[in-house]
Write a structure and sequence with these properties.
It contains two helices and no strands. It has 81 residues and is an all-alpha fold.
């Protein structure tokens, strides 16, 4: 009964809706230039991430070295007194 009520509404013409012949939306595949561009960009970002991680590890090592030197120097000054 619900469907028949909807179809009987004045002003709505469901016959004019052509939902069977909707053109397909093109989906970019592997062969498209945009897909290759995305793949290159992903590789660039992965390389950049690796480089930043290496640099970060180097900075952490340097900070630990500075911290150890600080501890050693402060310990030396405490024992001199």
């Amino acid at each position: 009964m619900g469907a028949s009520v909807v179809a009987q509404r004045p002003g709505i013409d469901f016959g004019s809706l052509n939902i069977n012949n909707v053109p397909p939306v093109p989906i970019p595949g592997i062969s498209s230039g945009r897909e290759a561009q995305y793949a290159r960009r992903v590789r660039e970002l992965e390389d950049e991430l690796r480089a930043v991680r290496v640099e970060n590890e180097r900075h952490v090592s340097f900070l630990l070295l500075l911290f150890v030197l600080y501890i050693v120097l402060t310990d030396l000054t405490v024992h001199r007194r």
